[in-house]
Amino acid sequence: MCAGVELVAGRGMSPGVALDVLGGGGDVTERHIFWQLRLPRTLVALGAGACLAVAGLVLQSALRNPLAGPEVTGVTPGAVLGAVTATALGLAGWDSPLAVVLAACAGGCAGAALLWLLAGRGRGDAAQTAVHGVLVSAVLGGLTAMVLLVEPGELGSVVQWLVGTTEGRVWQHWHLLWPWALVWGAAAWLLAGPLTLLRCGDDTALAAGLSVRRARTLALLCAVALTAGAVAAVGALGFVGLLVPHLAVAVFGADLRRSLPGAALAGAVVVCGADAAAQLSSRLLAAVPDSGRLTVPVGALTACLGAALLLVVVRRTPSRTF
């Protein structure tokens, strides 16, 4: 349903026109808007949301930390830094999405590695790891700002990656995202058993014969790759990878064989719904005088809603350790 709403939520196309195009009607412009702009944008939103949600659940399970989302473990800001730096050096850009994915993956790995080194022996402490994650994210964000100072002409790209948006996504982005998401999503699902053991603690996992270091390394690699793919496609969507996994576990249960696909579904629905709401908001703003072509990016909406939801949860469960 969210996908259907998103297809008709933006400017320039009513539900009646969309149905007409689906039935084979409509003029050339309407068919181009629907098939070449609206449909790939919707698919990219679905794929990116699924990637971020699965990455968040993998991180939270591997690190046994409910706050271990891509946004606060250095993965997302590292991926943004990698993409922005590659763009500033002329090695990547929106016209070369494969190079952006590789650069984002390298940056995400660097961010995760930096957090891993800083956390040291306190990796099992949820609060300490979260604090180190905030520090790493701040450092990487500062480096991204430095890149902007060196290359001020990249302001548009930096804003898109930092905030997160699905504007201008075309079939090329989708053709690159879906195989990446499918491969790494399948790899994450195959790690459901080891991740379940890791959630029980390292001692339990070792007693069951699991190679903890190898399993955790593979899980982190999956999470970094999924996050990098999503960031390269739509930028940094705040709070999706942090809060959606909790929703998936609450709805689908603690069995990761079910909750990992459930997280992918929930993440796709949340991002697609948020993008539809952002487009509807932009449509309403278009009716305001002097608003011009002002649009609401989906990343701004997910960040605001996610922060508000997190505050509500914390206030309602003050005794819980997050």
Explained architecture:
The structure is a single chain. The chain has helices spanning 2-9, 15-22, 28-63, 75-88, 97-119, 126-150, 155-163, 171-190, 192-199, 202-207, 212-234, 240-252, 256-286, 298-316. The chain has 322 residues and is mainly α. Helix 3 (28-63) packs across helix 12, helix 5 crosses helix 6 and helix 8 (171-190) runs antiparallel to helix 11 (212-234). The chain is globular and about 65 Å long.
> What's the N-to-C terminus distance?
33 Å
Q: Write the H/E string, N to C.
A: HHHHHHHHHHHHHH
Shape: globular
Amount of beta strand: under 5%
C-alpha Rg (nearest Å) = 20 Å
How many strand elements? 0
Oligomer: single chain
Q: Averaged pLDDT, please?
A: 82
User: In DSSP terms, counting alpha (H) and pi (I) runs of 4 or more, how many helices?
Assistant: 14
Tell me the helix content.
Answer: over 70%
Low-confidence stretches: none
- Biggest sheet: strands, sense, closure? none
| Structural class by SSE content | mainly alpha
What topology emerges from the helices and strands here?
Layout: H1 2-9, H2 15-22, H3 28-63, H4 75-88, H5 97-119, H6 126-150, H7 155-163, H8 171-190, H9 192-199, H10 202-207, H11 212-234, H12 240-252, H13 256-286, H14 298-316
Helix pairs in contact: 1-3, 1-13, 3-8, 3-9, 3-11, 3-12, 3-13, 4-5, 4-6, 4-7, 4-11, 5-6, 5-11, 8-11, 12-13, 13-14
